[in-house]
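Hi Y.,

Following your request, here is the sequence exactly as I used it, all 492 residues.
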Amino acid sequence: FGPDGKLYFNMGNEGKQLMDKDGKPIIDKDGNEVATSRKPYQEGLVFRCNLDGSQLETLGWNFRNNWELAVDSFGTIWQSDNDDDGNKGVRINYVMEYGNYGYKDEFTGAAWKTARENLEKEIPQQHWHLNDPGVVPTMLLTGAGSPTGICIYEGTLLPEVFRNQVIHCDAGPSIVRAYVTKKDGAGYKAEIVNVLDGSARDNWFRPSDVCVAPDGSLFVSDWYDPGVGGHNQQDVDRGRIFRLAPPGVKYSVPKYDFTTPAGCLAALDSPALSARYAAYSALQKMGQPAGAALHAAFFKADNDPRLRARALFCGAALVAGGGQKQFVAEMVKRTLQETDPDIRVLALRLARLHEVDLSAVASAAKDTSPEVRRELAISLRHNKSPAAAGLWADLAAQYDGKDRWYLEALGLAADKQWDAFLDAYLAKTSEPWKTTTGRDILWRSRGKQTPALLVKIIKDPATPESDQPRYFRALDFLSGREKDAALKTLLE
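Below is the corresponding structure, written out as tokens. Let me know if you'd prefer a different format.
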């Protein structure tokens, strides 16, 4: 359950197809049939929908064997993914919405071992096609493993290092880890801090899931088996559940009053997702009294930012459900003036969720934080507003030549509108094929002008020979007569 009131779930690359209760194929909000058959998606998928199954979105694709995902209070999605066994490519992803995550070749569906131009140097990077334009970066590679359950720890009972971090089980190496994240441009980087390690004394420890309890402690389930993988369960009689808490802290379950706005707000502040779900559901039924309480909770500046985020998500849904979309737009505009960039990111996610007009969020194109500009870029995806191309050009002009997350956000934004967006950028930028930043944007682009511009880069005497495979590889993702004409000039 996400803070926006939506259901988030996924399926691995053997899921094949998503069907409704009558066995009919699901069509997502982009009008695509949800299947792994490369029309247009392939391999593992990530989804979001209403609790009744309506308005399904495909939020990410081309994973291998993604087990579970977690959503934090700002609406950021986190997920692990399993490599082909034995290739030390298990990964932790920040799921940037609508991205391709690179398990198979985007254009041909070829496996990662297939020879290709500009091949990555090491197998874990090769495994996810990380040198290909159109592939979202991997936040963290964790080596060999069998990743399982995941959650976000948004409590205060455990030590500071674990707070607001991803907690994840990996049954292969018998370990539960925290991935302590830091912002990295428009994305994230992370380091590992172990929570539970069974490898030294009990390698039958096979953690399968981790959840935050109502008192802020952690529960970890352990299926307890000598082996992992290959559907080869050997011990069917034993299993364990662990509780992690500071010494001397006994387990207790807080009692909440879900009949009053104040009681629901107390529950909305719970570290346990179950309590927050119950609070959100009750608040949506209360009407105006709940709206006033949620408004006050969000605009109380000394409240925890994550509680403020939950209150804003819940309040916007309440108002939009009452038909007051203009009020949501005003909330978005006001929230974009907040000093905390995480809250400004939330404003843009709210605008997408409730289909707020692009004019309400255009000011974010000049935001000082790359993650805020990333979210505006994602908001431009398939947006038919006359202002969209100009805003994209403004965002592209601020690319720093180093931030792959930001570059891929620009690529996601321009999907199905590359010609208009690229034309706006070229009109704004002088000879981008001569600059590092411009070359990166052209490498990622998919417009009709792209093949000729890539060939111009390849033929430029200033282009090092070692860089040429990168641009030849980019040509693999283009087709049509413009590409044919550009390639003929290379032969000449």
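The longest helix spans residues 305-321.

Thanks again,
Q.
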